[in-house]
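queue> pop job 88
queue> type: inverse folding (structure -> sequence)
queue> payload:
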Protein backbone atom coordinates (compact mmCIF):
# COMPACT_ATOMS: atom_id res chain seq x y z
CA UNK A 1 0.00 0.00 0.00
CA UNK A 2 2.79 2.41 0.91
CA UNK A 3 4.61 1.84 -2.44
CA UNK A 4 1.38 2.66 -4.25
CA UNK A 5 1.32 6.09 -2.55
CA UNK A 6 4.94 6.80 -3.53
CA UNK A 7 4.40 6.09 -7.23
CA UNK A 8 2.82 9.46 -8.23
CA UNK A 9 5.61 11.37 -6.47
CA UNK A 10 8.29 9.30 -8.19
CA UNK A 11 6.70 9.90 -11.58
CA UNK A 12 6.60 13.67 -10.93
CA UNK A 13 10.23 13.69 -9.78
CA UNK A 14 11.36 11.79 -12.89
CA UNK A 15 9.34 14.05 -15.17
CA UNK A 16 10.78 17.21 -13.63
CA UNK A 17 14.29 15.81 -13.79
CA UNK A 18 13.82 15.16 -17.49
CA UNK A 19 13.01 18.83 -18.07
CA UNK A 20 16.44 20.10 -17.17
CA UNK A 21 18.72 21.22 -19.98
CA UNK A 22 22.12 22.76 -20.47
CA UNK A 23 22.12 26.53 -20.95
CA UNK A 24 24.61 27.60 -23.62
CA UNK A 25 25.06 30.97 -21.87
CA UNK A 26 27.13 29.25 -19.18
CA UNK A 27 29.90 28.69 -21.77
CA UNK A 28 30.09 32.30 -22.99
CA UNK A 29 33.61 32.85 -21.62
CA UNK A 30 34.96 29.46 -22.65
CA UNK A 31 38.02 29.22 -24.87
CA UNK A 32 39.09 28.40 -27.48
CA UNK A 33 36.10 29.51 -29.59
CA UNK A 34 33.93 26.67 -30.87
CA UNK A 35 32.06 28.48 -33.66
CA UNK A 36 31.77 26.60 -36.96
CA UNK A 37 34.07 29.02 -38.79
CA UNK A 38 36.82 28.28 -36.25
CA UNK A 39 36.38 24.57 -35.66
CA UNK A 40 34.78 23.14 -38.81
CA UNK A 41 37.11 24.76 -41.36
CA UNK A 42 39.91 22.29 -41.96
CA UNK A 43 40.21 18.55 -41.36
CA UNK A 44 38.69 16.89 -38.31
CA UNK A 45 38.52 13.20 -37.35
CA UNK A 46 35.94 11.95 -34.87
CA UNK A 47 35.90 8.64 -33.01
CA UNK A 48 32.61 7.71 -31.43
CA UNK A 49 30.02 5.26 -30.31
CA UNK A 50 26.26 5.06 -30.18
CA UNK A 51 24.47 3.58 -27.18
CA UNK A 52 20.79 2.73 -26.99
CA UNK A 53 18.54 3.99 -24.20
CA UNK A 54 19.57 1.03 -22.05
CA UNK A 55 23.29 1.84 -22.31
CA UNK A 56 24.16 -0.96 -24.75
CA UNK A 57 26.79 0.02 -27.32
CA UNK A 58 25.13 -0.40 -30.72
CA UNK A 59 27.93 0.85 -32.98
CA UNK A 60 31.36 2.41 -33.08
CA UNK A 61 32.42 4.71 -35.88
CA UNK A 62 35.02 7.02 -37.38
CA UNK A 63 33.92 10.33 -38.92
CA UNK A 64 36.29 12.14 -41.27
CA UNK A 65 35.25 15.76 -41.88
CA UNK A 66 36.70 18.32 -44.26
CA UNK A 67 35.33 21.84 -43.98
CA UNK A 68 35.77 25.20 -45.65
CA UNK A 69 34.77 28.73 -44.57
CA UNK A 70 33.50 31.30 -47.09
CA UNK A 71 33.69 34.71 -45.39
CA UNK A 72 31.78 36.47 -48.17
CA UNK A 73 28.66 34.30 -47.74
CA UNK A 74 29.25 33.57 -44.02
CA UNK A 75 28.99 29.87 -44.89
CA UNK A 76 30.79 26.78 -43.64
CA UNK A 77 30.59 23.67 -45.84
CA UNK A 78 31.50 20.36 -44.15
CA UNK A 79 31.83 17.06 -46.02
CA UNK A 80 31.57 14.06 -43.66
CA UNK A 81 32.50 10.44 -44.39
CA UNK A 82 31.46 7.98 -41.67
CA UNK A 83 32.71 4.40 -41.47
CA UNK A 84 31.53 1.89 -38.89
CA UNK A 85 33.93 -0.27 -36.91
CA UNK A 86 33.97 -3.57 -34.99
CA UNK A 87 32.32 -5.76 -37.62
CA UNK A 88 29.29 -3.51 -38.11
CA UNK A 89 27.07 -4.28 -41.08
CA UNK A 90 26.26 -0.56 -41.49
CA UNK A 91 27.45 0.81 -44.81
CA UNK A 92 29.73 3.87 -44.86
CA UNK A 93 27.77 7.10 -45.19
CA UNK A 94 28.49 10.53 -46.60
CA UNK A 95 26.85 13.82 -45.69
CA UNK A 96 27.48 17.42 -46.73
CA UNK A 97 26.44 20.12 -44.27
CA UNK A 98 26.03 23.78 -45.17
CA UNK A 99 25.96 26.14 -42.18
CA UNK A 100 25.10 29.81 -42.68
CA UNK A 101 25.68 32.41 -39.99
CA UNK A 102 22.40 34.34 -39.74
CA UNK A 103 23.43 36.71 -36.94
CA UNK A 104 26.50 36.70 -34.69
CA UNK A 105 26.52 33.39 -32.80
CA UNK A 106 23.46 31.97 -34.62
CA UNK A 107 23.49 29.53 -37.51
CA UNK A 108 21.19 27.52 -39.73
CA UNK A 109 22.23 24.26 -41.35
CA UNK A 110 21.06 21.93 -44.08
CA UNK A 111 22.02 18.41 -45.18
CA UNK A 112 20.30 15.82 -47.36
CA UNK A 113 19.07 13.69 -44.42
CA UNK A 114 18.00 16.68 -42.30
CA UNK A 115 14.30 17.53 -42.37
CA UNK A 116 13.89 21.28 -42.76
CA UNK A 117 16.61 23.46 -41.28
CA UNK A 118 18.92 22.77 -38.36
CA UNK A 119 19.29 25.57 -35.81
CA UNK A 120 22.66 26.17 -34.17
CA UNK A 121 24.08 28.53 -31.59
CA UNK A 122 27.69 29.14 -30.51
CA UNK A 123 28.92 30.66 -27.26
CA UNK A 124 32.51 30.58 -26.10
CA UNK A 125 33.79 27.03 -26.45
CA UNK A 126 30.31 25.47 -26.96
CA UNK A 127 28.21 24.69 -30.03
CA UNK A 128 24.57 23.55 -29.77
CA UNK A 129 22.73 22.20 -32.81
CA UNK A 130 19.14 20.92 -32.97
CA UNK A 131 17.49 19.28 -35.96
CA UNK A 132 15.09 16.63 -37.26
CA UNK A 133 16.68 13.79 -39.20
CA UNK A 134 15.67 10.84 -41.37
CA UNK A 135 17.42 7.92 -39.69
CA UNK A 136 17.75 4.57 -41.50
CA UNK A 137 16.58 1.70 -39.30
CA UNK A 138 16.39 -1.81 -40.72
CA UNK A 139 15.44 -1.03 -44.34
CA UNK A 140 13.17 1.95 -43.61
CA UNK A 141 13.58 5.45 -42.22
CA UNK A 142 12.22 7.04 -39.06
CA UNK A 143 12.11 10.73 -38.23
CA UNK A 144 14.02 11.59 -35.06
CA UNK A 145 15.05 14.71 -33.16
CA UNK A 146 18.76 15.30 -32.58
CA UNK A 147 20.07 17.51 -29.79
CA UNK A 148 23.80 17.89 -30.38
CA UNK A 149 26.33 19.58 -28.10
CA UNK A 150 30.03 20.06 -28.87
CA UNK A 151 32.65 21.58 -26.57
CA UNK A 152 36.09 22.62 -27.75
CA UNK A 153 38.61 21.54 -25.12
CA UNK A 154 41.79 22.78 -26.83
CA UNK A 155 42.93 23.99 -30.24
CA UNK A 156 42.80 20.41 -31.55
CA UNK A 157 40.26 18.51 -29.37
CA UNK A 158 36.47 18.71 -29.03
CA UNK A 159 33.98 16.46 -27.22
CA UNK A 160 30.49 15.85 -28.64
CA UNK A 161 27.35 14.51 -26.99
CA UNK A 162 24.19 13.92 -29.05
CA UNK A 163 20.79 12.76 -27.88
CA UNK A 164 18.54 11.08 -30.46
CA UNK A 165 14.84 10.98 -29.55
CA UNK A 166 11.37 10.46 -30.94
CA UNK A 167 8.24 11.91 -29.36
CA UNK A 168 10.33 13.04 -26.39
CA UNK A 169 11.67 9.55 -25.66
CA UNK A 170 15.45 9.09 -25.85
CA UNK A 171 16.30 6.31 -28.29
CA UNK A 172 20.09 6.63 -28.27
CA UNK A 173 23.06 8.83 -27.48
CA UNK A 174 26.29 9.36 -29.35
CA UNK A 175 29.61 10.32 -27.78
CA UNK A 176 32.38 11.52 -30.07
CA UNK A 177 35.96 12.66 -29.47
CA UNK A 178 37.10 14.96 -32.28
CA UNK A 179 40.72 15.67 -33.20
CA UNK A 180 41.53 18.53 -35.56
CA UNK A 181 44.58 18.35 -37.84
CA UNK A 182 46.88 21.32 -37.46
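queue> result:
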Amino acid sequence: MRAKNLFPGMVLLLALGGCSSTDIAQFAGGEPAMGPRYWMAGTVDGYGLVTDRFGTVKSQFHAHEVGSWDAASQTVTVVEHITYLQGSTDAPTDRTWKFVQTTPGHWTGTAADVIGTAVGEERGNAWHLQFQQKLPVGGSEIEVSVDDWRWRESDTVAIDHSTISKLGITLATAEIAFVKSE
